[in-house]
Amino acid sequence: MRRTSASLVAGALVAALAWASSPTSPAVALDPSAGVADLTQDINQILSDSRLTIARAGVVVKSAATGEELYATDAGKLLTPASNTKLFTAAAAAETLGLDYRFSTTVLASGRRAGSFLTGDLVLRGTGDPTMLAEDYDALAAKIAAEGIKVVTGKLVADDTWFDSQLLGNDWSWDDETAYYAAPISALTASPDRDYDAGSVIVAVAADGDKVKVSTTPETDYLKIVNKATVGARTSVLIERQHGTRTVVITGTVATPDQEWVSVDDPTAYVSSLFRKSLAKHGVKVLGPTTTGATPAGAKELAAHESMTLGELLVPFMKLSNNIHAEILTKAMGRKVAGQGTWSAGLKVSTDFAKANGVQVINMRDGSGLSRRDGFSPGSIVQLLSAVRGKPWFPTWYESLPIAGNADRFVGGTLRSRMANTAAANNVHAKTGSLTGVTALSGYVTSADGEPLIFSIMLNQYLLSVSPKDIEDKIAIRLAQFSRANPVNATAQLRSAGDAPAGDLECSWLKPVQC
Fold first, then answer.
1. Given this model, what pLDDT does residue 34 score?
2. Which of 121, 166, 276, 482 would disulfide-bridge 447, Cβ 3.0–4.6 Å?
3. pLDDT of res. 385
4. Under-70 pLDDT residues of the chain
5. What is the number of other CB atoms lying within 10 angstroms of the CB of residue 112?
6. Per-residue pLDDT, 22
7. Peptide bond before 218: cis, by omega within 30 degrees of 0?
8. In a domain, 428, yes or no
9. Which helix (H) or strand (E) segment is 343 a member of?
10. How far is the CA of 509 from the CAs of 83, 129, 344, in angstroms?
């Protein structure tokens, strides 16, 4: 995973520790009521935008220093949160699994060794590691070869029983099925890149003379490619896996190279094909077929791979709003607490954590916010953001949030192109959220007086093709400008340098566009 510079890390740690402390007051004692009326007037004016006339808007702003509610409208209304759901999943995972938690992937032998022969089965067992790459499975295969095993007389058994067999969320839209941000959830999975987009393959096209050349990352014959694309004057190509199959159909015209992240239909079967191919490459022949099932009792471990820690995984998860990480962590929590790697068990863990921390209005249907039946109130989100400040893991969790206007992709994340060159830049730490007709922004900002503020902005049911994220930006910037020492009506000064991304999905979901 990409690392930031030492200076950025040091500065971030200082900021996080300041936010993690018990409620602090500004350096100078200020009139509690000063500036609040102007702030209320300005936010009301921002929300009077005609685009919200038929929409629903819930906004809450709270001082972390005093506990005072500075602004609220529809604070208790149940609204669709989109990826603001990940705030709850990430916090519950940090609390339940711990920042040192690692996923493990192991290879075991079930049978007897006789020289270079394994008389029995070879088992590949996973626990949901979303960071596994094809090269990691190849490294496991190399370790098996290094053990001296050349022939496995039995089967290759893929053990994905750490999680249940439900691969897709109950409420997920069928037309998202082939999109990498709605990939199936399995205890055995693989990512094509170091964003760790588990359960997907990158399918690339390029003009090669008068033909269109197709390649995949990683190289795999698991997908069946039907290439109907032609070379043309411009690139206008559709790369899509057919519903319920492993067939990817490519249509349109190609002039310049293009690529698409495509989910696989069955991550366990896909991983098994990668691993079997690597075994063969390293001279290990498996005579039997590939099957699925639980690891037999008494199987002996031959090789293992451990993931990065959860504390490290929070960065690509939250900065890039990775849906699959959220769902894998949800099932991992269920497995740890209830012994069941299911959505229902994991969501109970997240919900119980939220309620134990004072959250009242909550309806969690998945861990990522892809479900339109997820529901939170802005007041509940602010309550969670307030409660977790006292947790020992808060500094790491806080720094995993996208940071406004910071161009570094693994620092700014989904806010890297928003609020640049404003008082909110490198100040606002917040989670974005986007679905068609839904946008949300919730997190933390430090005022002009140095007062820590917590906020949640949720906009639902607008009927525009362009998301009104600039409204969120204006409110966040106004909060960064908020002052009790020198109160001022700042509406006229508000601006958002760098347009908020257009469209209805997180910019990180629209690969290969990078937010």
1. 77
2. 482
3. 98
4. 1-30, 488-515
5. 10
6. 47
7. yes
8. yes
9. helix 343-356
10. 11, 20, 25
Q: Which candidate in 62, 63, 86, 442 is catalytic? A: 86
Residue 322 lies in a domain: yes
The single residue listed with the structure tokens 């199936």 is: 184
Residues 229 and 298 placed together within one structural domain of the fold: no
| Range of the structural domain that residue 161 is part of | 104-165+267-307
Q: Is this structure's pTM higher than 0.90?
A: yes
Q: Which of 170, 128, 190 is nearest to 330 (CA)?
A: 128
Same domain, yes or no, for 451 and 346? yes
Q: For this structure, is 456 an active site residue?
A: no
Question: What tokens appear for 116 in the block?
Answer: 């270079």
Catalytic (active site) residue 321: yes
Among the listed residues 186, 272, 321, 368, the single catalytic one is 321
Give the CATH number for residue 291. Answer: 3.50.80.20
Q: Please count the structural domains in the chain.
A: 3
DSSP secondary structure string for all residues of 142-171:
HHHHHTT--EE-S-EEEE-TTS-S--S-TT
Residue 33 lies in a domain: no
What does the block give as tokens for 294? 């639980």
- The backbone torsions φ and ψ at residue 510, rounded to the nearest 5 degrees and listed phi first, read -100, 55
Contact assessment for residue 45 and residue 71, using Cβ atoms and an 8 Å cutoff: no
Closest CA to 93 of 425, 438, 393: 393
Is the domain of 497 the same as that of 472?
Answer: yes
* Any domain includes 21: no
- 380/459 same-domain check: yes
Residue finishing a domain among 279, 307, 335? 307
Given this model, what pLDDT does residue 203 score? Answer: 98
Is the same domain home to 352 and 480?
yes
134 and 252 share one domain:
no
* Catalytic site residue from 62, 63, 83, 447: 83
**Which of 386, 398, 334 lies closest to 358 in space, CA to CA?**
386
- Report pLDDT for 5: 39
86 has catalytic annotation: yes
Q: How far is CA 226 from CA 163, 179, 203, 240, 420, in A?
A: 32, 18, 12, 10, 43
